[in-house]
Design brief:
The complex is a heterodimer. Chain A is mainly α. Chain A is built from 12 helices and 2 strands. Chain A has one domain. The longest helix of chain A is centred in the first third of the chain and has 40 residues, at 2-41. Chain A is globular and about 60 Å long. By secondary structure, chain B is mainly α. Chain B is built from 19 helices and 2 strands. Chain B has helices at residues 4-21, 23-30, 38-59, 64-79, 89-98, 104-118, 123-136, 138-143, 145-162, 168-172, 174-192, 196-218, 233-251, 256-280, 291-315, 338-352, 369-383, 390-416, 422-441; strands spanning 328-329, 335-336. The radius of gyration of chain B is 24 Å and the shape is globular. The chains are: A mainly alpha, B mainly alpha.
Chain lengths: 289, 442
């Protein structure tokens, strides 16, 4: 009985620590994702502690007054996605590996992020969502083809550690680039315009809250791309895991930024080429064994 | 073959549930002691009789001749005979009666697709046609699974080409029909290749799909369960189907590419199904009472686990039922801890909800004005005439011209012979052909 109680306490301690680390890192991530590119272009941006202040206000208001029904659902989904995709563990590695193996599925997580995109701007073109969904399905297919019998990103990492240099890494990389080019999450400007034209949600604080939630979805998307880009850094333990999380996030947001800067994200043929390359690599790796 | 007959039992249970809960049948039963609109009462009676006949057909499945007769009666009762308006409906059914386990299954499939496509917005008729097709075509699917899948794809393509295409909705409705056919094909192929896990996964997906569809017929609000948004059962169907097909492609020779294509097709059909659900979204979907939404949430949470336990029990591995309460297994050894995800989601959600109780009706899961406008626009989009690609249109025109010239030449030929009614000649020749085939078979 005591052992059971101890393990339950450790599970909750682990989950709480992970959530705390993610909440601490979130303002940094949003700052890296939104403010640093603007800073590099040469615009003036607010410092990092402004981000921390904004998030502090957001959490204080949320915990004190609560959110409307759909905003609350979307915030819970976004937090869960971040928790599953973070892929590090501090005190109890089993929990991290279970979440990484059973929940960190690219299709599941990407699907939740797409649902978030559809919820934020319902009128956004269905074609973009459809393309993104197709690319997600193909990503899942190719990863399963290249690594039969593994579950989730944790399985991909294990397999890559066991057999480095396999075709799996190339497949995942091509899929990550293709996903980065078909991103259908609305950026903050489009979101603000849409909210103003629809006049919903009504209050200004509600709009701010929604912007923060959508920022979380953007972070989740970049994290998904980073997980596919550098699967070996997924599922590390201790402080190395936190560093791996930041490295993966930076890699993913670099991909998104590169896609936006080069204007490739309307180029369907390039995406098709990347997907074909990923499929070829997966098939080659499968028939090579 | 461990679960051939339990599969039939599952279909019978789904039909029985449908018989107990469908709206028109409830109207029919209550019309026995109070006054209801006569049209609905008559339709409810027809539905009830059709479902009973369909259950009889499933029960009598070894006797192919009686079954084809019963299928005809059931389809006529459910759909008013629209399924047999083209002349090939009855010959196809007789073909099923002659060769039930062979190529005749394709004839039955064609008839059922036709009936389901003609059913329009009548969900019960579509579901009964689908159940008849799955239950009676199972013999053919077990013998020739590849032909089953390929025949399903080709027949749906033909139905789409030949159909009137009045609106997009009727086009997308075929998604709901084709996905179970593909899942059954994947299940049979997996069993032939000796992959127990893949067969179980596909069976689980099929069962969940049928359960969701029958629930959507009984209770229109439950149609939301079929949205392919991730934590909902519609996504589970697509995900498990995808993984069952991928398991097929990754562990058998010769199915690599076909399995991959099947997986993507199953997931794509799920997405199309989501479009149908959004397009059919009726005003009762967005009323503001809280209680029905709680039931929908409970169903969405519990339905996959319940279906998984039933599927495992029917497959003979009932001992591991406790595992379904925290994870769902895909068809290739991969797991998804969706029930745990639901639990964490509900916990976080109730942490973030608005506290004050005063304005509870305002804080409900209902659609705002802007979103309702968008749904209305989507509704109009789905009602509109679909745009055919030019190549398809050209192909169709060429086919129609060929058919017209063929008919003209046949009429000229018939005008040389001393007959006045070509239909009578067709039926006489057909009857003679059937008698010859039966004589040759004995």
């Amino acid at each position: 009985m005591g052992a059971l109680l101890g393990s339950v306490v450790r599970v909750f301690l682990e989950l709480g620590l992970q959530l705390g680390v993610i909440l601490l890192l979130l303002p940094v991530m949003v700052w890296l994702k939104e403010d640093v590119p603007a800073l590099l272009v040469g615009r003036a941006v607010s410092p990092l502690r402004e981000r921390y202040a904004r998030f502090g206000t957001f959490w204080r208001l949320t915990l004190r007054h609560g959110l409307p029904m759909d905003d609350g659902l979307m915030l819970a989904l976004g937090l869960l996605v971040l928790l599953c995709l973070s892929g590090f563990s501090l005190v109890m590695p089993e929990i991290g590996s279970v979440m990484g193996a059973w929940l960190a599925d690219p299709l599941l997580m990407g699907g939740i992020l797409l649902v978030g995109a559809f919820w934020v701007v319902p009128g956004l073109s269905r074609g973009a969502h459809g393309r993104c969904c197709l690319v997600l399905c193909l990503t899942e297919c190719f990863i399963v083809l290249a690594a039969p019998g593994v579950t989730g990103l944790e399985g991909v990492q294990r397999l890559l550690l066991a057999a480095p240099g396999s075709s799996l890494a190339g497949t995942a990389l091509c899929c990550a680039v293709a996903l980065a080019l078909t991103t259908s999450l609305p950026d903050s400007q489009a979101l603000a315009d849409d909210m103003v034209t629809r006049g919903q949600p009504a209050g200004r604080s509600a709009r701010d809250q929604r912007q923060v939630i959508v920022g979380m979805y953007h972070v989740g998307w970049a994290l998904l791309l980073g997980d596919l880009l550098l699967p070996v850094l997924f599922g590390l333990e201790g402080l190395g895991g936190v560093v791996g999380l930041m490295v993966r996030f930076v890699g993913g947001s670099l991909l998104v930024a590169a896609g936006r800067l080069t204007g490739m994200n309307r180029n369907g043929r390039f995406v098709a080429l990347l997907l074909g390359l990923a499929g070829l690599m997966a098939l080659a790796g499968r028939f090579a064994v | 073959m461990p679960f051939h007959d339990p599969f039939m039992a599952c279909l019978l249970v789904v039909l029985a549930v449908l018989l107990c809960g469908e709206g028109d049948i409830r109207v029919f039963v209550s019309g026995l002691w109070r006054s209801v609109p006569l049209v609905r009462w008559r339709r409810g009676g027809c539905h009830m009789a059709g479902m009973v006949v369909a259950m009889l057909a499933l029960l009598l499945s070894p006797h192919a001749g009686a079954v084809s007769c019963l299928v005809a009666i059931a389809l006529i009762l459910m759909g008013g005979g629209a399924a047999f308006q083209p002349v090939w409906g009855i010959p196809a059914l007789i073909g099923y009666g002659l060769l039930p386990a062979g190529i005749g299954g394709l004839g039955l499939m064609a008839v059922c697709f036709r009936a389901a496509g003609r059913a329009g917005s009548d969900g019960a008729a579509r579901l009964v046609a689908l159940l008849l097709m799955l239950g009676l075509g199972h013999g053919m699917a077990a013998l020739y699974p590849l032909w089953w899948v390929a025949g399903g794809a080709v027949l749906v393509g033909l139905c789409l080409m030949a159909g009137p295409w009045s609106d997009r909705l009727s086009l997308y409705r075929y998604c709901r029909l084709v996905r179970p056919v593909f899942l059954l094909g994947v299940m049979e192929v997996s069993r032939q290749q000796g992959m127990v896990l893949g067969a179980e996964g596909a069976f689980f997906a099929l069962l969940l799909d049928l359960a969701c569809q029958s629930l959507a017929v009984i209770w229109p609000r439950a149609a939301l369960l079929m949205l392919p948004a991730p934590p909902l059962p519609g996504f589970v169907v697509g995900w498990v189907g995808l993984h069952a097909a991928l398991g097929l492609s990754s562990s058998t020779e010769g199915w690599t590419v076909v399995g991959c294509l099947l997986g993507v097709a199953i997931m794509g059909l799920s997405c199309g199904d989501g479009l149908v659900v959004l397009g059919e979204a009726t005003p009762p979907l967005w009323d503001r009472r809280r209680q029905p939404w709680v039931w929908v949430l409970l169903l969405a949470m519990g339905l996959p686990s319940a279906c998984g336990i039933v599927a495992d029990w029917l497959a003979g591995h009932g001992a591991a039922w406790a595992g379904w309460f925290y994870r769902l297994s895909g068809g290739d050894g991969s797991m998804m801890a969706l029930p745990v995800f639901w639990a964490a989601l509900l916990l976080l959600w109730f942490c973030f909800l608005r506290r004050e109780r005063g304005n509870a009706p305002d804080a409900d899961l209902s659609l705002e004005e802007g979103e309702r406008n968008i749904l209305d626009a989507f509704h109009v989009y789905m009602q509109a005439q679909p745009v055919r690609p030019r190549s398809v249109r050209r192909l169709l025109m060429r086919g129609q011209r060929q058919a017209r010239s063929l008919r003209l030449s046949v009429m000229e030929l018939l005008s040389l012979t001393p007959v006045q009614e070509p239909e009578a000649v067709f039926w006489l020749v057909f009857l003679g052909g059937v008698l010859v085939v039966m004589g040759l078979a004995q």
